[in-house]
Amino acid sequence: MFSNVTVVNPGAGREAQRTVRVEGGRIASIEPTGADELEPGTPEGGYLLPGLVDMHVHGADPSIDGQEALFSLLYLAHGVTALRNTGGGSDQLAERERIARGDEAGPRIFACGPLHDGQPPIWAFSTVVETPAQAEQAVAYVADAGFDCVKVYERLLPEAQAALVRAARERRLPVVGHVPDRVRFEDAGIDDIQHLRGIERAEGREPILDVRRMVRRHQDWAALSAERIDYVARTSLAKGIAYTPTLALIERGSRMDRLDAQMAEPVMRLLPRFYSALSWDPRGFSWYAEIGESDWALARAAHRSAARMVAALFRAGVRIHAGTDVGNPFLVPGASLHEELRQLVAAGLTPEEAWLSATRWPGEFLREPGLGTLEPGAPADLLLFREDPTRDLAALDTLQAVVADGRLYRRETLDDALEASQRLYRGWLYDTVSMAIGTRRRDAALAAAREE
Q1: Which of 5, 121, 211, 216 suits 298 as a labelling partner, its CA being 20 to 30 A distant?
Q2: Which secondary structure element, helix H or strand E, spans residue 293, and what is its range?
Q3: Which stretches of 146-193 are DSSP H helices?
Q4: Domain of residue 324, residue span
């Protein structure tokens, strides 16, 4: 029970001096606080908000000991109580079940299953789809396995993309992902476009298979016109297209020429050293050496254009979902969603509007009744703050308690767990073993890149 709190539903108002009771993983009641209700030890005062939802993540590497548990802890410690895994295998379903049963602490998980791409796929682990029959088979697997959405990618042929969308509609599964290169965004049938990928261009075109693909995209974004922004906003609203822009990903990617500065950020100490020192360091790969100073300037111009697009979409009434693409360089679970909220505010949203994009709107898209809201019967995913982060995002640092699926985690408990994890993962033994594993993997990746 939380007593004498201000209940804040982003985008829908606030109520002061309320008592919130939780039973069986759900909000049982929200009522005015009576003077005779206060009980010793009950959290009292502050601001109660819905838990944050990260709408684009990838899971930890389960082959490296303890990383799944660490990611879950980091999400909870930053108030992320739900997430959508936008590409992975059945291991994410197993993790979802362990957390739902209470065997592990962590956020509730929604999962899209495998990436669906054309030939050759960008990622070797993708499911290649080239025919309608393959599309039907692929979507049947996603549905029967219990995944929540269908993920599409950039090298799909137009007919394969259309077949995947038809099959997903028949199964009542939303389609999320990147607009395929050969398809216009308004024809793609994607319900939630990730990273704004594909909306910067007016026509489909043949894919590029090397680093020029990124440079061409940045050129398009840097040259984005006001007319194009207006067209995308109007068309997206008319077609009901939502966006998970991952501005934090785009911004960090535009600074990949400043690797040492990113590696030195204090937030990176929340993860084992092998992430920054090995997994996220592209130096030594030929593609990285091909990117020049003017290309990095272009990437930063593209980020500024993407921010303008997000602001225009939001003002037009298009749904924006906060997401980060955890798994990519320098995006720390949980902390990266705080970065995304700040990126949305820098783009022109108010703090409360940014919170709306990370609470109620994701909950509605994920079709979990009440998720992202504080109301009787809604899932008990709650955050207690000493100060109001919908007024000023600096108040994110005043998080006092997290309730995930009805389970209470106090700030001091989370801090103790984080401290213990840092002692373990930064300790000599774990650091030595994980760096050795990471070095072998990096050497193998470099050798494979030289053979291509």
Answers
A1: 121
A2: helix 293-316
A3: 158-170
A4: 51-112+191-372+411-451
Length of the chain: 452
- Over the stretch 350-407, which tens digit does the pLDDT of each residue have? 999 999 999 999 999 999 999 999 999 999 999 999 999 999 999 999 999 999 999 9
Non-local (6+) Cβ contacts of 409 within 8 A are 76, 105, 401, 402, 403
Cis peptide before 329 (omega within 30 of 0): no
Does residue 283 lie in a domain region? yes
Query: Taking a C-beta distance cutoff of 8 angstroms, is the pair 47, 71 a contact?
Result: no
The string of pLDDT tens digits covering residues 64-111 is: 888 999 999 999 999 999 999 998 888 889 999 999 999 999 999 999
Alpha-carbon distance of 28 to 375, in angstroms, equals 8
Show the beta-strand stretches assigned E in 149-229. Answer: 150-152, 175-177, 192-194
Residue from 195, 186, 124, 133 nearest 155 by CA:
124
CA angle 83, 85, 89 (to 5 degrees): 145
The greatest distance separating any two alpha carbons of the chain, rounded to the nearest whole angstrom, comes to 74
- Write the single-letter amino acid at 53: V
Residue 46, in any domain of the structure: no
Quote the CA–CA distance of 48 and 40 in Å, as a whole number. 19
The CATH number of the domain holding residue 447 is 3.20.20
Neighbours of 277 (CB within 10 A): 16
Domains in the chain: how many in total? 1
What per-residue string of b and e applies to 130-151 under the rule 16 or more CB within 10 Å gives b? eeeebbbebbeebbeeebbbbb
DSSP state of 57: E
Contact 358, 396 (CB under 8 A): no
In sequence order, the 6+-apart residues with CB closer than 8 A to the CB of 43 are 1, 2, 3, 5, 384, 400, 401
CA 443 to chain centre: 29
| 326 token code pair | 């955890």
Is residue 151 one of the residues assigned to a domain? no
